[in-house]
What we know:
The complex is a heterodimer.
Chain A: H1 6-14, E1 25-29, E2 38-42, H2 45-54, E3 60-65, H3 72-77, H4 83-93, E4 103-106, H5 116-123, E5 126-129, H6 137-142, H7 158-183, H8 186-205, H9 217-238, H10 244-264, E6 275-276, E7 284-287, H11 297-301, E8 307-310, E9 315-318, H12 329-333, E10 339-342, E11 348-349, H13 351-356, E12 364-365
Parallel strand pairs in A: 2-3, 2-4, 4-5, 6-12
Antiparallel strand pairs in A: 1-3, 7-10, 8-9, 10-11
Chain B: H1 7-11, H2 14-24, H3 29-40, E1 46-50, H4 56-63, E2 67-72, H5 75-82, E3 93-98, H6 104-107, E4 113-119, H7 127-140, E5 141-152, H8 158-179, H9 189-195, E6 199-206, E7 211-217
Parallel strand pairs in B: 1-2, 1-4, 2-3, 4-5
Antiparallel strand pairs in B: 5-7, 6-7
Amino acid sequence: MRPRDFPHWLRDTMLRMFPHRAPTGLVRIGNPGRESPVLVTGNFTLTIRRLIDALRGHDVWLLCANSKGINVWCAAGGGHLTHHDVISVVRISRIGELVDHRELVLPQLCATGVERRKIAEITGWSARWGPARLEDLPGFLRRRRHLVKGERFVRFPLWERMEMSFMWSWALIAVAVLGAWGIGSWALALCALAVILGIVGGIFAALPWLIVTGPKRWLTFGAFAVVGFGVGVGVLAALGSATSAHLWLAAGTAVVATGVLSVDLAGTTPWYGSYINRFHNPALVDLVETRCTGAAECVQVCPRDVLEMNGHRRKVEIKRPDQCIQCGACIVQCPEDALRFRYDDGRVVEAATIRRTRMNMVGQRTVELPEP
Amino acid sequence: MSSFVWMKFLESSPERYDRGVELLSRGRIADVYDTIAELAASPGKRLLDIGCGTGGVSLACAARGARVVAIDSNPGMLDIARAKPVTRDQGGDIEWLELGLAEVEDRFGEAHFDAIVSCLVFSELSPDEQVYTLDMARSRLMPGGRLVIADEALPQSGPRRMWHRVRRLPLGLITYLLTQTSTRPVERLAESIRLAGFGRVEETRLWGDTFVVVSAVREDVGR
């Protein structure tokens, strides 16, 4: 990031939870020609800014589809970015008049909502999957659009977790500081600042080792609320302002900060599953082996390395089901409808249903469940 | 109606859509469907409904005898629409299709329709999609064919416009939190339609100047 881009980065990061629409259409990066690759993304401002940064020195055409200002993964899961939107930007931009080839590079994480085969059927453009993370795009382009295995999987490095904690913190801090200003106590404002930063920063820093879904998540959040309150008490004591009223307010701040995070922490991280109809349910991805023809499309789009191709048997195998986050990408892309979700009690949700239903913000699909 | 920002929440669960829009419009949305149908539909007319959703406009047009092609890119919405009974007394009918707006040209030739309608869709499109849609609509309409577009709008007077923005802000925030997106009022709709080459452009503003219905006609064969 160049220093002059910092204010934009700050704005986009602070507001990254909200849609922020960039213009749709064609963006030239470098000096692209008739053989240059054509990449596709959504029209989320932060993504486009980062793509342009990451691809400095490359010559590519970038097509920004109308994802309603939402990042690619969330938009595809929520039904805001579909193959119809990709077809729309291909045609409206007239990219076909600018290049001699007919190949699009799709961001892998759009696989949960963008049906690759439909794009080819309707437009005649073939589409291949690019890496899951835009940081891997330069290497992918240098290797002449060849993807290496590790680039298919989502990561959530510390810097990105801290960025996400900043997004959550600033709004909470703004409200807390305004409240403290209303009460007229700067000691309380400092205390609220420490409580919020302690809880939010602490949770995101320690996230790889925490349980934030399922019934045990309340222990995690409870522990952080207590630690946050402890930090607040420490600050108030150090400032000589540990009155009974201030201690209650510090406790309230800790509860609110933890409560806000507990609502959708899993939704702002790439590791935790979405839900098929019910929260915290035990549905797992299921393979109907007789239908599988070994196309391995599912292996190419799984962001969690759940599936593997067995070359000898020409069948896909579910190797790491516990890693599945129920994004549904493998189910949506399978040309034979060989994958589906299965509950412990035997109920199944087939591919046709998954393709027709979308996730809401907390990652829940409101599908009709069949009788057991 | 103060705002349609809740539309997105409703769309995230198609089965709630009709009930919610009815509630939000205080029972007046059916009047808009009828207004559009009155302007665009009559027995035997070939009519395209762009972004038909759960079918409110299409059903109103079919009830007036139009042969409707209703398209939407959301299959969940179309499932709800298909389950509704169509009034065929006047010879009307509806073909429901999952189709994006840029795919219309694959299915229908130039000058194929007598009328094209769209309700609560235009504000969701990006500016270049809006221009494309108007061009597409013009080319798919017969000469003399009618275009009717209805959508949320901003009031024309400055203070009312500001008050409207303030009033929709909290609703917008809640909708963002529930669905990660929101709707936006469409701006300068009548002007855009004129620029796309349509004639006899007429604008009707409803509900405290926060909803607009624009009707226009394809007057000539070429541009």
